[in-house]
UniProtKB/TrEMBL annotation:
Keyword Lipid metabolism among record annotations: no
Record lineage: Bacteria, Pseudomonadati, Pseudomonadota, Betaproteobacteria, Burkholderiales
UniProt cofactor(s): pyridoxal 5'-phosphate
Organism whose genome encodes this protein: Pseudoduganella lurida
Top-level taxon: Bacteria
Name of protein: Succinyldiaminopimelate aminotransferase
């Protein structure tokens, strides 16, 4: 067996299952899960219809690069959404079977394991980044999020000797689990570091279309364009972005996303994926074209999340330290005032109120003397508003019972 597999940590949901062993939830209450970030809003009917209408495509082997129609559709969406100059859909866009698969595979294509490589990851983080680093033969280097910086990471704190070994930097903006969005200044600093040290930036932007203010989150390609990095000889050099329809269009089971950016990187990544077997099914491609071409359902989806967060966040603020995030569908709450650790809070809440939340320490690693997820919980507000409100009310009742 590949010895690198032994470096992998149990996935957070496996740790949660172990945490709940022996805990008997209150039988008088139906279970409500805020633990998994799986969109629960209905899939738009027109996407399902486009999928059904294209089932004859199952008789055709798909090409790894996807159809020209899908690549052009994705390029056009990026241009509209981020105000980008025209992209070359043939060289700067690559459809993938969901951002998760592509984020993992990308490290295998980029990393030179003979070079004592490091992969920089935010902390807390999406677990795929760490697994991708280990199985590519590299080591992850974690940069802790800081509540004082709106949960941003202080990349200036990374020592020069570390940057010299970095081959890949994973970013998530809007962040999972914090919802933090990188600013133009953040991007400018990161681009300068990439230029100086030659590492690749992989920007995970799958939460970009769920935001709570009037201004849409800044994207990496957008920041590069604003800073003049899209018009040089090698536009978007060492930069790729990953996005997905899962959250935007409520189709996590469709497994449809894309990678876009540096044409030289995508050429090599396409070669890797040709051998890996990452071609997207033709019916999925047809449904994806329909989804990327429509914004009305995205606006409706965003409105539902805004209403839900506006109703639930004030309730939880009565008992927890939690703020409305910049974007995404998670609340990242500090439970310290309850007197319980994040794991104790999650286990007792499950047993007493039959509500599942995810301990924040499961989403982070001990780094630089601390685990930035400790004493925090992640709550995914993915269910319908009524169910989310009921869960919030139970959490309030649970927290109030701790002080009696």
């Amino acid at each position: 067996m590949n010895p690198l597999l032994d470096k992998l940590h149990p996935y957070p949901f496996e740790k949660l299952r172990q945490l709940f062993e022996g805990a008997t939830p209150n039988p008088a209450l139906r279970h409500i899960s805020l633990g998994i970030g799986e969109p629960k809003h209905p899939t738009p009917p027109f996407i399902k219809q486009a999928l059904a209408d294209s089932l004859d495509g199952l008789a055709v082997y798909p090409v790894t690069a996807g159809t020209e129609a899908l690549r052009r559709t994705i390029a056009a969406w990026l241009e509209r959404r981020y105000g980008l100059p025209p992209l070359n859909a043939a060289t700067q866009v690559l459809p993938v079977n969901g951002s998760r698969e592509a984020l993992f595979a990308f490290a295998q294509a980029v990393i030179d394991p003979s070079a004592n490589a490091l992969v920089v990851c935010p902390n807390p983080f999406y677990q795929i980044y760490e697994g991708a680093a280990f199985l590519s033969g590299a080591e992850p280097y974690f940069v802790n999020s800081d509540p004082a910086r709106n949960f941003g990471c202080d990349y200036d704190s990374v020592p020069e000797e570390v940057w010299k070994r970095v081959q890949l930097l994973y970013l998530c903006s809007p962040g999972n689990p914090t919802g933090a969005v990188l600013s133009l200044t953040d991007w400018e600093n990161l681009f300068a570091l990439s230029e100086r040290h030659g590492f690749v930036i992989a920007s995970d932007e799958c939460y970009s279309e769920i935001y709570h203010g009037d201004e849409a989150p800044l994207g990496a390609l957008q920041a590069a364009h604003i800073l003049g990095l899209s018009s040089v000889d090698k536009p978007y050099a060492r930069l790729v972005v990953f996005s997905s329809l899962s959250k935007r269009s409520n189709v996590p089971g469709l497994r449809s996303g894309f990678v876009a950016g540096d044409a030289d990187l995508l050429k090599k990544f396409l070669l890797f994926r040709t051998y890996q077997g990452g071609a997207m099914s033709p019916p999925v491609q047809a449904a994806s074209i329909a989804a990327w071409n429509d914004e009305a359902h995205v606006e409706d989806n965003r409105a539902q999340y805004r209403a839900k967060f506006d109703a639930i966040t004030p309730l939880l603020q009565e008992v927890l330290d939690v703020q409305l995030p910049d974007a995404g569908f998670y609340l990242w709450a500090d439970v310290s005032r309850t007197g319980l650790s994040d794991t104790e809070f999650a286990r007792r809440l499950y047993a007493e109120q039959n509500v599942t939340v995810l301990p924040g320490s499961y989403l982070a690693r001990e780094a630089h003397g601390t685990n930035p997820g400790r004493n925090r919980i992640r709550m995914a507000l993915v269910a319908e508003t009524a169910e989310g409100l009921e869960a919030a009310q139970r959490i309030v009742q649970f927290c109030n019972s701790l002080t009696k």
